[in-house]
Amino acid sequence: MPANPENINPSNDNPDHVPELTVIVPIYNEKERVIDTLTRVLAVPIDIELIAVDDASEDGTSEILKEWVKDQPRVRLFRHPYNMGNGASVKTGMRNARAPALLIVDADGQHPPEDIPKFYEKIQVYDLVVGQRAKGTDSTAFRNLGNWVFNTFSSYVAGCRIPDLTCGMRCMKTDVALEFIDLFPNGFSLPSTSTLSVIKAGYSIDWIPIQSPRRKGKSKIKPFSDGSKFLLIIVRIAVFFKPLRVFLPLSLFTFGIGLLLLGFTFAREGRLHFEPSTGLMLQSALLIFLMGLISEQIANIRFSGRR
After folding, report:
1. How many angstroms separate the first and last alpha carbons of the chain?
2. Which of 158, 170, 253, 268 sits between 20 and 30 A of 92, alpha carbons compared?
């Protein structure tokens, strides 16, 4: 059961009004940029419900938001009791969204709110619309390399080209987001999880080119620890939706090692002889393959009753 966030301005709740779009802004220690970002979101010419989620900021952001939101009838402000993570903030917004579609925008100014109308237009046709960051925007060589690895591996897992896996600016049908909300992690890997989940479940997806300016200040994403988490999540989603994409290559690799050991034995002794290590590799390859088949059947049964 998720921790209940505090509704800072419940007077702005209007259950009778259904906006065209819910914009979710997860916030943590962004006192220098958050008001500018929120103001730009509200300037978009769409009937927007803006949900700002303060993830227990410690730099004065909370006090700034509480004062600012008093004069903003279209803004609903929630605050977590403790720091729960960027993904947890987004999920709080999803659970409270009233519009048929929701869009996620970072508070640090890296996602241009002026592009929101393009996302809103596309979401009328697709179930998920993801921002595709132009090359050279908000990029270091190390980060570009990491994104290329994630995009390449995730494209293999999904069975289709994914030009930008980790961009946080994305628009989803609200019912689709809620269908997968229990899969979404509380950290920074919610974008990759949502992208792969939607693709593997057979929903439609498209990308929109955006310009992402370089972040001012220190990024909250840790390249090594968060990068390894991204890869683990891609594997987890692959096993959840398409297990053979993971089990089959592993089985073939293990089988190949077994054949190499068998070949070495034949070259050394001039006859076929199954040493214990060779038998172990070949049997392991078979077991891994059978596990993949069983997992594939379970995955198919899981989605056989979907609407």
Report:
1. 26
2. 158
- pLDDT < 50 regions, the chain: 1, 307
CA distance readout (Å), 213 to 6, 24, 110, 134, 273: 32, 20, 5, 10, 62
Q: Edge-to-edge strand order for the sheet containing 170-173?
A: 6-7, 75-79, 48-54, 21-27, 101-104, 170-173, 128-133, 205-210
Q: What is the mean pLDDT of the chain?
A: 86
10 Å Cβ neighbour count for 81? 10
Q: What does DSSP assign to residue 17?
A: -
Q: Tell me, what's the pLDDT at 158? A: 79
Alpha carbon 201 to its chain's center? 14
Separation of alpha carbons 15 and 4, rounded Å? 19
Structure tokens at 92: 């709080």
User: Please, are residues 110 and 138 in contact by the beta-carbon 8 Å criterion?
Assistant: yes
